[in-house]
Amino acid sequence: MSVQYQITGAAASEIAASIESGVRSGQLSPGRTLPPVRKLAADLGVAPGTVASAYRRLRERGVVETGGRAGTFVRQRSAFTPVGTLTVPSGVRDLVSGEPDGDLLPDLSRLLPRVDLPHGNYRDGGPCPHLLDLARDRLAADGVHGDLTVTSGALDAFERGLAARLEPGDTVAVEEPTWANGRDLLLSAGYQVTPVAIDGEGPLAAELDAALTGGARAFILTSRGQNPTGATVSADRAAALRAVVRKHPGVFVIEDDHWAELSRTPLRPVADAAEHWMFVRSVSKPYGPDLRCAIVAADADTKARLQGRMALGHGWVSGILQHFVIAAWSDEVVAAAVEHAGEVYAERQTALREALAERGVEAWGTSGLNLWVPVADETAAVVSLRDSGFAVAPGRSYSFHGDQGIRVSTSRLEPALAPAVADAIAYASGPATPPI
Known about the structure:
The protein is α/β, with parallel strands linked by helices. The chain has 3 domains: 12-74, Orthogonal Bundle (Arc Repressor Mutant, subunit A), CATH 1.10.10; 93-102 and 334-429, Aspartate Aminotransferase, domain 1, CATH 3.90.1150; 107-331, Aspartate Aminotransferase, domain 2, CATH 3.40.640. Helices cover 39% and strands 15% of the residues. Strands 4-11-10-9-8-5-6-7 form an 8-stranded mixed beta sheet, sandwiched between helices. Strands 12-15-14 form a 3-stranded antiparallel beta sheet, with helices on one face. It has a two-stranded antiparallel sheet with strand order 1-2. The longest helix has 27 residues, at 332-358. The protein is globular.
């Protein structure tokens, strides 16, 4: 913990508020380890149970994470973390951000003359019928059918869908390692989370069965390009997961297919095995993060509830954004750019994965922007790689159990550089076991 910040408080609520203040101000930076419970209790002159209660409140709100031997530390991202806290030192190659390569995004400005700008009103706003028609054909080609609607991106769909079917305090099963933003959203909304271990082929069926048997009311999984691992749900794994879902009537399943048109691997749907389900395909990764729009396929009741909750809030996704998606989906030049981007991303990820394999280093990842490398000591690995000129993300921010690993973003990694990165990772990783 930074010596410049002094945690204060005599009650659990006061201690939690003090730590939140430090996180908001940036004085308690992401990844910073907090004092052990007994030490902070002694420093503040309170009972250890008071500090433990404060830490528990902070975990429930998604501010801190407990990582086994790593102790309690500030999450990399939370509702209280200032934007822009990620910094890569000068001269160090950025393999940490996990953002799409801006050079590979299609130029949507050329679509402006073709975008049909609607003159809507409050009464007629809603999903554009033409967009839904195009989306229905695209999803059907991947074996996804259902009632369709539109949300302001994937997280908007997750939040509204869960609120429509669950209550605060209910348990949601998520992948382990998991997408930190999604987990933090769940915690900040008052849900409990339970992990379902994954490997390179997606969530493990036995782990999902245990989570649902233990009381989880919902399950969120990623079809392809899972963050942080790059895992893709295989045909066999999808069949096993669908069988588990059918064993547990009433479970609500959300499937995230953010990689969508960029994927070189086939989609193996899982969500629609449930009575209540939602399949979410965002357009942000292929077409640009500013295009905050996602297509949602769902059972009829869930779709109606989702649209009902939207009607009580901002009402609908901007018709202008929806017409931009229509124009992008209908433009051959844009389609070619997205196809090219998918090929480049796959080439970059494959180059590093194969270079690591040649050096005897295990790595997960067959689609998406990242690879996951299990390591013996992630802190040492991150420091070693930084000293070698490469910035990577420590795995503990994606893990419930503090499993040791690093996330390597390949989105901007030229294949010619893959051998040098693999050499640095091989040197830094040491012996390790997979986080399952």
